[in-house]
Design a protein that fits this description.
Rossmann fold; two-stranded antiparallel sheet; five-stranded parallel beta sheet; 2 domains; alpha/beta; single chain
């Protein structure tokens, strides 16, 4: 492939992503960085965990994204009484026209292209774990038989950080399987004014499909071809290692407040996210800026605070900032 052909492919991919962002923007006002982080994750083939107080539009964003890229969409409302079979599906006894009975597998809502796991921390750990295999292996094992989830597949989960009663914090093993954790902040004054003014029209606005699941896979494959310098790979590895308190080069704040640091999966995710960021910027090379921009969302949920860190209310975002600052020195 010639450089001109490659640049043309990158530009076409950027136009499709811009169209996707504009379509989502018809109903999801503002929060451009939240939208961009979500799109980066799905182009990299990862699952997203949204965290924010109620009413910020997390569910609206996921619904809009699903409609804009097409494919099969399913929504699972997590509750304390939700069972694993309600997610994966189960073998059901059926009777045919001849009166013969047999078991037939009825697929659960996990068999979709885009799965919204709403308020995921309201379900029990047993039910939460039903997502683990699907998120990592793109398959589901029921009754001793493994069934593949075909095509493009993403889990986009939401959780409320305020309510503690009746919730079950996600175990570290499951958190690590989320490609990134997107913190959804309050809108700015200007954005809130736009939301209020556009409310009557947004209710009637229909989201059009501007991409297909195949487009998502093709753009993701194109991003994977973007080269990254050995120096940047080494820098990413150093950043990930600096999140571990036992590492001699870790900042003092990490050694004081962190129990466990990031796994190797974080380095892989940060590399993929940086490549997608480079593509969306129209470059065929990864820069240090791409790594710095994506590091907070990739690392924040993979850092486990110790008792002192929890007691003092330390933010993992501030710890990531300390790590990035230490890498610059």
């Amino acid at each position: 492939m010639s450089p001109d052909e490659l640049q043309e492919k990158i530009e076409r991919a950027r136009q499709k992503v811009r169209g996707l962002e504009e379509e989502i923007g018809k109903v999801f006002v503002g929060q451009t960085e939240v939208v961009r982080e979500t799109i980066v994750a799905i182009l990299a083939g990862g699952c997203v965990l949204f965290e924010g107080v109620p009413g910020l539009g997390k569910t609206l964003l996921v619904r809009s994204l699903a409609r804009a890229i097409g494919g099969v969409f399913s929504r699972i409302q997590f509750t304390p009484d939700l069972m694993p079979a309600d997610i994966t599906g189960s073998n059901v006894l059926i009777e045919n026209e001849n009166g013969r009975k047999s078991f037939e597998f009825q697929k659960g809502p996990i068999f979709a292209n885009v799965v919204l796991a709403d308020e995921i921390n309201r379900a029990t750990p047993k039910t939460q774990s039903a997502l683990l295999e699907a998120m990592q292996e793109r398959s589901v094992t029921v009754g001793g038989e493994t069934r593949k989830i075909e095509g493009t597949f993403f889990v986009l989960a939401t959780q409320n950080p305020l309510e503690m009663e009746g919730t079950y914090p996600l175990p570290e093993a499951q958190l690590d399987r989320f490609f990134c954790k997107v913190a959804v902040p309050y809108p700015s004054v200007e954005e809130l004014i736009r939301i209020v003014k556009s409310a009557p029209t947004r209710v009637q606005t229909e989201i059009s499909q501007v991409m297909s699941p195949t487009d998502v896979q093709e753009i993701g494959a194109l991003a994977e071809q973007i080269p990254i310098a050995d120096e940047l790979v080494e820098s990413i590895v150093r950043v990930v290692r600096k999140t571990r308190p036992e590492e001699s080069t870790a900042p003092d704040s990490i050694k004081r407040y962190v129990r466990y640091g990031c796994s190797p999966r974080a380095a892989l995710a940060l590399t993929s996210a940086a490549k997608v960021s480079a593509l969306l910027a129209g470059r065929y090379n990864v820069s240090a800026k791409d790594v710095v921009e994506r590091a907070p969302s990739i690392l924040r949920h993979r850092i486990v605070l110790n008792f002192e860190g929890q007691a003092e209310g330390v933010s993992t975002d501030s710890l990531v900032a300390d790590v990035l600052a230490a890498e610059k020195r």
